[in-house]
Amino acid sequence: MFEKKIKDNDKKQIERSKRKGNAGAKERAVLIIKTVAIPLVLAGVVVLALYLAMQSKFEADSLKGNVLVMKEKISANTIVTKDKADDYFTTVSVELTAIPSNAYTSVSELPDKFYVENAMAKNQMVMKDDISKSDPVMDKYKSGYEVTSFATESFDFSVNGSLRHGDVVDVYAVDPTTETLMLMAENVYVDEVYDNSGNKVSDDEGVATSFTVWVTPEEVESINTAVVYGGIQMYLKTK
């Protein structure tokens, strides 16, 4: 009887050991699965996120295009040659919907030599009508010109005071004989302007009183006469 009870106890002990062994094996299996599966899932999530990000960037890039813009502000009537174009222009990427059909997209599209027709601001897009290979006013200087300077009266609210580099003007002076305002020269290019202190004026606040202009050989005598007459007034040309 005692021997049978021992055997029964041994069997129960063996059964418990088996159950514990099976439970331990299951726990080890679950641990192995967690150890392997979780990093794989996380890696999959990372790969998916990278793919979606790259796909989104690709789609965004496909909706962009290049456009030519100004590096810095530039005055009207500035003459630019293609070998110097990189000093004035640069290419940027923008939304395709923001690019007008008449915009330049790269420096390579520009002519070999051209005029900037209008004053332009930094980062402004360059349109086809902003530049020109010829200009009826500026082309007259191709045959040569002289640079001359003169002072005018300080009229804060006159066109004299508001003129700036790059402007094209008609020059008038008062004939002392008739005391009438006479047209002395047309379409004169203003190269530089200065205030009463001799400082170059480039902003909108200063008042210009002295000017350096380009004149053709045929205009030299007229401009000299205007200086002698005095009372010079210059009026901005509009194209």
Low-confidence runs (pLDDT<50, min 5 residues)? none
Number of strands: 10
Biggest sheet record = 5 strands, antiparallel
Strands of the widest sheet, in order across it, are 6-9-8-7-10
Question: Can you offer a commentary on this structure?
Answer:
The chain has 239 residues and is of the alpha+beta class. Helix content is 31%, strand content 26%. It has helices at 2-62, 159-162, 220-229; strands at residues 64-70, 78-81, 89-95, 113-116, 131-132, 146-151, 168-175, 180-194, 210-215, 233-236. Strands 6-9-8-7-10 form a five-stranded antiparallel beta sheet, with helices on one face.
What is the element layout, followed by pairings?
Elements: H1 2-62, E1 64-70, E2 78-81, E3 89-95, E4 113-116, E5 131-132, E6 146-151, H2 159-162, E7 168-175, E8 180-194, E9 210-215, H3 220-229, E10 233-236
Antiparallel strand pairs: 1-3, 2-4, 4-5, 6-9, 7-8, 7-10, 8-9
Q: How would you sum up this structure in a few lines?
A:
The protein is α+β, with helices and mostly antiparallel strands. Helices cover 31% and strands 26% of the residues. The strands form three sheets. The protein has a five-stranded antiparallel sheet with strand order 6-9-8-7-10, covered by helices on one side. Strands 2-4-5 form a three-stranded antiparallel sheet, with no helix packed on it. A two-stranded antiparallel sheet has the order 1-3.
